[in-house]
Amino acid sequence: MNGKTLYTVIIFSENTVGLLNQITIIFTRRQLNIETLSVSPSAIKGIHKFTITTFADKDTIDKVVKQIDKRVDILKAYYNTDEDLVYQEIALYKVSTELFMKMNGVEELIRKYNTRVLEMNESCIVLEKSGHYEETQELFDELSHSIGVLQFIRSGRIAITKSKVERLSDMLSAMEKRLDIKPEER
Predict the structure, then answer these.
(1) Average pLDDT, stretch 51-55?
(2) What CATH number did the domain enclosing 106 receive?
């Protein structure tokens, strides 16, 4: 993408109404497209984690993350490259039962892609594949060319850092030390 790198932006916040809109506006102003977006509760009670991927240059992503981090509702925002993360996506594929059963090498296909069958009935079969984008796309391409795909959906990236703890945990520990809060008082 024209010398741009795929960055994963991780944002921690409380579950505040309208926050997603405020975050997306920051990306829009810098003319950055959000490639994937996933939001879920984090390991810390009451804190949500946004995982956003975008292509950008280092200077732009620095500015975006600093701008997000300045928001009152944001506890911590930072970015990583793929080398710093363990990440996955999940994809679901709906195919015709009749065509799938007639297909040669069904067992090999399931083993090759480490795919699970989630639902099977007389009209359709729903397959699940987790992995990196390229892996889920490869299965989609193979099914599309051989029997066709009735429906397809892929999740946004979910990611955790390779480091021992999340950066938010470090920040919260430092705050507790400054305020002299004991872990049992949380």
Answers:
(1) 96
(2) 3.30.70.1150
Percentage of the chain with pLDDT > 70?
87
> Is residue 169 in a domain?
no
Query: Are 70 and 106 members of one domain?
Result: no
Shared-domain flag, residues 154 and 108 = yes
pLDDT in tens, 98-115: 999 999 889 999 999 999
Model pTM score? 0.81
Same domain, 61 and 25: yes
DSSP per-residue codes, the chain: -TT-EEEEEEEEE---TTHHHHHHHHHHHTT--EEEEEEEE-SSTT-EEEEEEEEE-HHHHHHHHHHHHTSTTEEEEEEE-GGGEEEEEEEEEEEEHHHHHHSTTHHHHHHHHT-EEEEE-SSEEEEEEEE-HHHHHHHHHHHHHHT--SEEEEPPPEEEESSSS-HHHHHHHHHHHHHT--GGG-
Query: How far is C-alpha 143 from the geometric centre of its chain's CA atoms?
Result: 24
Domain that holds residue 17: 5-80
The pLDDT mean for the chain works out to 89
For 147, the token pair is: 């029997």
Indicate the number of domains in the chain: 2
